[in-house]
Amino acid sequence: SLGPFPKCTDASNLRLPGRRVTILTTAALPWRTGPAVNALLRALYLAKRGSSVVLRIPWIEPEAQRQLFQDGSDIFESKEEQEKYVRTWCVEKAGIDSAELPLEIRWYEATYVAAVRSIFPTGDVSSDLGEGENDVLIMEEPEHLCWFHQGRRWPELFRHVI
After folding, report:
1. In what order do the strands lie in the sheet containing 52-60?
2. Global pTM?
3. Are 109 and 59 contacting, i.e. CB atoms less than 8 angstroms apart?
4. How many CB atoms lie within 10 A of CB 134?
5. Which of 102, 110, 99 is nearest to 25 (CA)?
6. Which residues pair with 106 in a beta bridge?
7. Torsions phi, psi of 34, nearest 5?
8. CB atoms closer than 10 angstroms to residue 54
9. Per residue in 71-116, pLDDT tens?
10. DSSP string computed for the chain
11. I need a labelling partner for 64 at 20 to 30 A (CA). Which of 16, 27, 54, 120 fits?
């Protein structure tokens, strides 16, 4: 036996009202991978449930996007153009209008590394977390987010890290 199951702390209890959640992921639509789709659906669910959510997704310059989307379809010249694509997908595929939810999309600079078919941040993602207290952080593919992370440790920046 592993002993008694530990109780939730205030920091780890995601059911408490008023939680502010940051979801940090290594991919964004139109790349239809788990980190892109799961992070977005999780953000929609948590925002629909009433949590304030910031979805941090990578911005890849158009030239690097051409490596990722070699057929030339889905190349975005601006973050706003890609955000419009993401929010339209929410309505058309998930049936949820993200504009009506407490969901903010924020970008961090990243690049696509073809040798490992992965996206990596090009700077310290923790340096521009925004104003206010950082409450809960949910990381998609934390190994990709932390391989080159030079900033403070995530548990020093957030009350609870998943």
Report:
1. 118-121, 103-113, 52-60, 20-24, 136-139, 160-161
2. 0.91
3. yes
4. 20
5. 110
6. 56
7. -55, -50
8. 21
9. 777 899 999 999 999 999 999 999 999 999 999 999 999 998 889 8
10. ---SPPPPPTTT-TTSTT-EEEEE-S--TTS-SHHHHHHHHHHHHHHHTT-EEEEEEEEE-HHHHHHHSTTS-S--SSHHHHHHHHHHHIIIII---GGGSSEEEEEEEEEEEGGGTEEEESS-GGGG--SS---EEEESSHHHHHTT--SS-HHHH-SEE-
11. 54
Q: Which residue has the tokens 């080159």?
A: 148
- Residue type at 121 in one-letter notation: P
Token duo for residue 21 = 């959640």
Residue the block writes with tokens 């955000």: 83
Q: Are 29 and 36 in contact (CB under 8 A)?
A: yes
